[in-house]
Amino acid sequence: MDQEQLAKFTVSTRHFNRILIAIDDDDFISSRFAFDYACTVAKIYSIPLAIASVLETGDLNVFQSLDPDVLAERRNEIAKDLNIYVEKAKEAGILDVVPMIGEGKPGRVIVEQMIPQFKPDLVVVGSETHPGARKTIGSVAAHITRFSPCSVIVVRDPASAPAPKPEN
Q1: What SS3 state is found at 77?
Q2: Is residue 35 part of a domain?
Q3: Where in the numbering of this chain does the UspA domain appear (predicted)?
Q4: CB 86 within 8 A of CB 97
């Protein structure tokens, strides 16, 4: 961009129309802050919010994955948790809340199935941070960020942010 183009540039307002929040049923901390952010934006814009959770079939051993009772129990647990998130979103003032459940590899299921079905223009994901670990995003957040056809924001636990360095 040259100086003339930059001088003519004006800031325009960015408005989202549909948000999908990816919830990790096994990681409440990273999901919580992402969920708070998604609910805040959905409420401010008065737009639909999809709350997506994926049963990670890769986390099950061979015997569990072949046992219909184990799968049914895990599906039921995810559905109950998802319903709690839906109720929390409604309590926060979001009028249009859509629960979504999938099975498989979370990043792939969200990008290949849930995003095309709900058609969000913003996906919100959390990212787990371990104390003392480098600040990298998890594999699911990375996959969604890399392959999503729409904007993606990664929200971290504010407590995991590095402390500001004192000025001399």
Answers
A1: helix
A2: yes
A3: 16-156
A4: yes
Would the pTM count as exceeding 0.85?
Answer: no
- Sole residue written with tokens 């990816």: 22
Q: Name the 3-class secondary structure at 8.
A: helix
Dist. CA 104–CA 61, nearest whole Å? 13
Integer Rg of the chain from CA: 18
Output the domain CATH number for residue 77: 3.40.50.620
What secondary structure letter does DSSP report for 132?
T
Sign (positive or negative) of CA dihedral 112, 39, 43, 10 = negative
- In the chain, the number of structural domains is 1
Q: How many helices (H) and strands (E) does the chain have?
A: 7, 5
Residue 98 β-bridge partners:
50
86 lies in some domain = yes
Amino acid, res. 163: A
Q: Tokens at residue 129, please?
A: 């941070």
Beta bridge partners of 125: 22, 154
- pLDDT, tens digit, for every residue of 50-103? 999 998 876 655 555 556 677 788 889 999 999 999 999 999 999 999 999 999
Contacts of 82 (CB under 8 A, 6+ apart): 23, 25, 51, 53, 99, 101
